[in-house]
Design a protein that fits this description.
- This protein is an all-alpha fold and about 90 residues long.
- The protein has one domain.
- Helix 4 crosses helix 5.
- The longest helix is centred in the first third of the chain and has 17 residues.
- The protein starts with a helix and ends in a 14-residue tail after the last helix.
Length: about 90
């Protein structure tokens, strides 16, 4: 998980924010929903590529933007959005 958090550094944000994104990403991967809907596994590289496509914002903003697109496409992803993280 630390390696994934370090990949998120390119989007700025605090360590707490990156840790929150990493936790939510792990929860999403453990759920298996993404792989079932998309037809391929959820990887750290895939997430970083998707977050890079967002216009701007820190890791949590970009994560929520991507999850919003998954919510529109498939439904059932709102529960994985980040509402708060430590230090916020």
């Amino acid at each position: 998980m630390k390696q994934f958090e370090s990949k998120l550094e390119r989007f700025g944000g605090t360590a707490d924010e990156r840790r929150a994104v990493a936790r939510h990403a792990r929860d999403l991967a453990d759920d298996g929903r993404f792989e079932q809907d998309a037809g391929y596994p959820l990887t750290a590289e895939l997430i970083v590529d998707e977050l890079a496509a967002a216009r701007d914002g820190g890791p949590a903003d970009r994560w929520n933007w991507w999850l919003g697109s998954l919510e529109v496409a498939y439904g059932g992803y709102a529960e994985f959005q980040i509402r708060r993280w430590g230090g916020e």
